[in-house]
Design goal:
mainly alpha; Collagenase (Catalytic Domain); three-stranded mixed beta sheet; two-stranded antiparallel sheet; 9 helices; 5 strands
């Protein structure tokens, strides 16, 4: 499903193949893509979101799964995929948006280190493209609830640490920018 849709939106034949396994290990808390085996490992606890009756829970599960599918898609089609004009265009758009992200905390303004987080731009974008396809109401009716599900209490120290050190950046910024990028990309396709 994802492979066919990605071929359709990028109008080019890219191939990738993945295995998905579920783990009961408590060491794995989020899905991860293992390059060597081309496998996405999904923790059993996250499967509870997939099986939930709550649509927002399902959307959150699939965001994280699709993010790892994005890593697999990019990994298995490199380096040629990065020469593709549409990928370059959306990556440039994402770099520009992320370069504007600032954190105002404790009377300081911190700028996001784009070099630290750039590897997550396209997987997030791909995740949001796939979410939009499979959950059409996400960007309209469900957006506020979906976005709110990623907000949780963080101390100032945690926020600064995430902002300065985490290669994934602050999830709220990632999701918001990825949504903007999908809307921009859809506009380009018109």
């Amino acid at each position: 499903m994802a492979n066919e849709y990605l071929k359709l939106i990028f109008e080019k034949k890219f191939n990738f193949k993945i295995n998905i396994i579920i783990t009961f290990s408590s060491k794995i808390i989020m899905p991860i893509y293992v390059v060597k085996t081309k496998t996405i490992i999904v923790p059993i606890k996250l499967i509870l979101l997939k099986n939930s009756n709550n649509l927002i829970d399902q959307e959150v599960f699939f965001f994280f799964l699709y993010h790892e599918i994005g890593h697999a898609f990019l990994d298995q089609n490199r380096p040629s995929i990065y020469k593709f004009k549409k990928i370059k265009s959306i990556f440039t758009y994402l770099c520009n948006k992320y370069s504007l992200v600032e954190l105002s905390i404790e009377d300081k303004i911190l700028s996001l280190n784009v070099q630290q987080v750039y590897k997550e731009f396209l997987p997030d974008f791909i995740a949001m493209m796939l979410l939009q396809k499979n959950f059409p109401s996400l960007f309209n009716k469900d957006w506020k609830a979906f976005f709110a599900s990623f907000n949780y209490f963080k101390t100032d120290e945690e926020i600064i640490s995430i902002f300065n050190k985490d290669p994934h950046a602050i999830i709220e910024a990632r999701i918001f920018i990825s949504k903007q990028a999908v809307e921009y990309f859809n506009y380009l396709l018109l």
